């Protein structure tokens, strides 16, 4: 005499529910895995990484070129030169001796702090970018008096040896100064 194995009356719907939940979880895992893979191999992700690198390098270089202490002028100018490339670098190297004398005579300490920045253009393939950086510049005179000035700078960056460096720097126009 064989006995039929009986399952409790409420277990079939529970088993079916568990099976459905397992299938839904598996489908969700497959979908999120595919989305993650697509995002990780998307060109826009690589572009965003280069944009972020250009911005960080641009902000740092603009800050470097607006910071200088007369007591450590040689180290400051070394930092300026290591932050630049191209014509801007050449101008700094060519004018270094004269500028050193001017800074030592003035005996000022200039510090800059980045308030905000943005990449306004990026050509990753050509290795060129433009940044807009807002700074707060503090100048301390020999008599310990300080003045602060907010400034907006436009920087041009060129990728050199795999690093973004400042190749041009100028003051950004302020307010309604567009030609009419």
Describe this structure in words.
With 180 residues, the protein is of the alpha+beta class. The protein has two domains: 12-41; 47-171, Nuclear Transport Factor 2, Chain: A (Roll). The chain is built from five helices and five strands; from the N terminus they run ααβαααββββ. A five-stranded antiparallel beta sheet has the order 1-2-3-4-5. The protein is elongated and about 110 Å long.
* Count of helical stretches: 5
Overall strand count: 5
> Which spans have pLDDT < 50 for at least 5 consecutive residues?
none
**Helix proportion of residues, in percent?**
40-55%
> Per CATH, what is the topology of the largest domain?
Nuclear Transport Factor 2, Chain: A
Write down the secondary-structure element order.
HHEHHHEEEE
Number of domains: 2
What is the makeup of the main sheet? 5 strands, antiparallel
Alpha-carbon Rg, integer: 30 Å
Give the SSE map.
Blueprint lengths: L10 H30 L2 H22 L3 E2 L3 H10 L3 H9 L1 H11 L2 E15 L4 E13 L5 E15 L2 E9 L9
Antiparallel strand pairs: 1-2, 2-3, 3-4, 4-5
């Amino acid at each position: 005499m064989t006995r039929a194995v009986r399952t409790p009356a409420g277990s079939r719907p529970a088993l079916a529910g568990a099976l459905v939940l397992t299938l839904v979880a598996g489908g969700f895992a497959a979908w999120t895995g595919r989305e993650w893979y697509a995002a990780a191999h998307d060109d826009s992700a690589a572009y965003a990484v280069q944009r972020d690198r250009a911005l960080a390098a641009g902000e740092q270089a603009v800050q470097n070129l607006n910071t200088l202490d007369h007591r450590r002028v040689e180290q400051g100018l070394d930092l300026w030169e290591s932050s630049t490339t191209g014509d801007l670098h050449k101008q700094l190297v060519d004018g270094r001796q004269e500028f050193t004398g001017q800074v030592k005579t003035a005996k000022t300490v200039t510090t800059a702090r980045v308030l905000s920045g943005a990449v306004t253009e990026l050509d990753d393939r050509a290795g060129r970018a433009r940044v807009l950086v807002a700074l707060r510049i503090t100048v301390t005179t020999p008599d310990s008096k300080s003045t602060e000035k907010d400034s907006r700078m436009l920087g041009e960056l060129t990728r050199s040896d795999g690093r973004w460096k400042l190749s041009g720097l100028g003051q950004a126009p302020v307010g309604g100064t567009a030609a009419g």
